[in-house]
Amino acid sequence: MWRCWQRSVPITARVADSAAGLVAQPPVTASSPLLTQHRGVFADKVRAGMVLRVDKRVYRVVANTRSQKGQNAASFNIKLTEVGTSRKKEVTAGQGHDFAEVRAERVRLLFSGFDDDDFACFVFPPHSPDAGKEVNIPGDSLPEVQQRFLACAMPVDILHIIPDDDTEKETWTEITMPSSYVYTVETITLKGLYKMAAFVECDGTVSVNDQIQLGEKIKVVIKPDGTVAFGGRANP
């Protein structure tokens, strides 16, 4: 696996995430406008995108559908996906059922490479109060497109789930890469009828046109479905 040996910002502290629970110690806090305060949410107020704790696990709400049972009674069918695993779950609850909305935030970090244990390392940017602190996530838990196209100093958004007490685990998950990024062409090879470019910054390859040469900077489009595409030459 490709590693970025030269980190772009100094490392002053490390927050290690285990593969099983993504446990982080010591606790790391960061300001974010998307911070969700811990509170109860009635079933009829649950909305897609909320992060809830159900049966001691953390889920993201996919959809909430109302079904009428009687003249004045209603129940709600809530579709969930578990954060970090994407396992699906459905629950049915009455209008007055109270769900626990967890404290969560999206945090902007910079990718700093894979370490010798194949953990993906991310650091808080220089302007952050936690500048230099590092968050580690098992590399093999990342989608293939992230393992191949994460580049040193690339800004990413990571979901940070904050524990409510000492018995719960701090979690870092759901890495969101930019929708496109600029890479430097290191080598060009032929694969059948296609011209494939490999890059200085990562392990990924992408099909390019005949005009692209070694050393050029090109844009790679990173799609939500995990595929990538050539996005043309980068603007000078």
Automatic annotation (TrEMBL):
One annotated GO molecular function: translation elongation factor activity
One GO location term (cellular component): cytoplasm
Cited InterPro entries: Rib_uL2_dom2 (IPR014722), Transl_elong_fac_P/YeiP (IPR020599), Transl_elong_KOW-like (IPR013185), Translation_prot_SH3-like_sf (IPR008991)
Key words of the record: Elongation factor, Protein biosynthesis
Translation elongation factor KOW-like domain residues: 45-93
Classification via PANTHER family: ELONGATION FACTOR P (PTHR30053), TRANSLATION ELONGATION FACTOR KOW-LIKE DOMAIN-CONTAINING PROTEIN (PTHR30053:SF14)
Protein name: Elongation factor P (EF-P) KOW-like domain containing protein
Protein source organism: Leishmania utingensis
